[in-house]
Amino acid sequence: MTPQIFYALITAVLMSIGQIFFKKASNFNLQHENLNFFIKFLTNPWFLIGLFMFGLSTITWIKALSGENLTKIYPLVSLAYVFTFILAYFIFGEKITLNTILGTMAIIIGVIIIGLGK
Questions:
Q1: pTM of the entire structure?
Q2: Where do the structural domains in the chain lie, given as residue ranges?
Q3: DSSP string over 68-99
Q4: Is the pLDDT at 47 greater than 80, yes or no?
């Protein structure tokens, strides 16, 4: 595994973690409807943590782009969906359907096929 692929995978994981915090942020905002729209976000710890995760993912993504073809490295970002799917199941108890399993498998197979190409 090249360092660029490692950084791309870390990017996908950080993006997934960020999405989990954004989901928690949306629940926080629903509970604080009386606050101004922007104040909700600025005082929402889940949103701020999610934003931080996306900031970190941007840094790791830029590192992943150094020295690797974009067409080879970019598909790895789609694994963020796979990681988010798994995290959402365990953290929020979100339902798993046949369609989500098939779609997730298609993403994984697609990443493998692209990765095998030289």
A1: 0.86
A2: 3-116
A3: S-HHHHGGGGGHHHHHHHHHHHHHH-PPP-HH
A4: yes
